[in-house]
Design goal:
Distance between the termini: 30 Å
CATH class: Mainly Beta
Structural class: mainly beta
CATH architecture: Beta Barrel
Oligomer: single chain
Length: 132
């Protein structure tokens, strides 16, 4: 039985043995599958839970285990209440089945997205980098 207080991330997973706490959060995400340094496929998904060591996704398609993936997750908070943020994660797909797509993170960072009224894709700027 878990000694974590009710409502904590660990309490949601009482038999959890991972070294990073998972936080149940549902956010939209775009992904790029990368092979030989080039974008092989594009898609979209939703997060089920996030930890500093990885993320679990719900995707419309099964993705190949072992593939390198870059995730661009729309973050719900804005920098200084104004500028939209994206959490960018680079990692490997470790599992893809009915339960979801599990990604082990190698690197993650927040980037800002400038708002443009012209319909042109927003430019991404690096805000802060964290060792993966």
């Amino acid at each position: 039985m878990s000694t974590a207080p009710a409502g904590s991330p660990v309490a949601a997973y009482p038999d959890e043995r991972r070294s990073h706490e998972r936080f149940p959060i549902n956010l939209s995400a775009d992904f790029r599958i990368i092979r030989r340094g080039r974008v092989h496929a594009l898609g979209s998904a939703r997060t089920v839970n996030i930890a500093s060591g990885g993320v679990l996704l719900e995707a419309d398609e099964r993705l190949s285990a072992g593939a390198l993936i870059e995730l661009l997750i729309s973050w719900p908070l804005r920098l200084e209440g104004v500028c939209p943020l994206k959490l960018v994660m680079l990692g490997r797909i470790v599992r893809s089945d009915r339960e979801g797509v599990a990604v082990k993170t190698k690197h993650h960072e927040f980037r800002t997205s400038a708002i443009r009224a012209t319909g042109v894709q927003p430019r991404e700027l690096k805000v802060r980098s964290f060792p993966g």
